[in-house]
Amino acid sequence: MYRSKNDYDRAIADYTAAFRLNPNDTKVLDQRALTYLFKGDYDRAIADYTAILRINPNDAYTLGQRADSYHRKGDYDRAIADYAAMLRIDPKDDDALCGRADVYYEKGDYRRAIADYETALRINPNNTYAKEELEKARQAQRQ
Q1: Which regions of the chain are under pLDDT 50?
Q2: N or C, where is the chain less crowded by C-beta within 10 Å?
Q3: Based on the structure, what is the number of domains in the chain?
């Protein structure tokens, strides 16, 4: 409730209290991590996602959330590693491919970005995001 009102500190306090009552409740930890993300506190979001992954290392959703946190923080290599871990779990995850392609694009590695966007489109030809970003990456590579 507090998070929907942008009162992130109170939301975090509530999630922290709930987590203390049940330290195995990864859903509460996920909600706190998401609130940290909204607040722009990427290090704490990453810490919470890492804690969830200690409990469930093959949680692709959490890997994606942590990858996004690393990406926003500018820690591109760790973001790429998490997207790669997601793809080991599900090689046909076009969202993971697009996420990794976005990071490659920001790093200026247009060849790898293009390859990931193209793979995402082979998996899901209706992925309009991949189509749009593929064109941007091709244009950037030509320049």
Answers
A1: none
A2: C
A3: 2
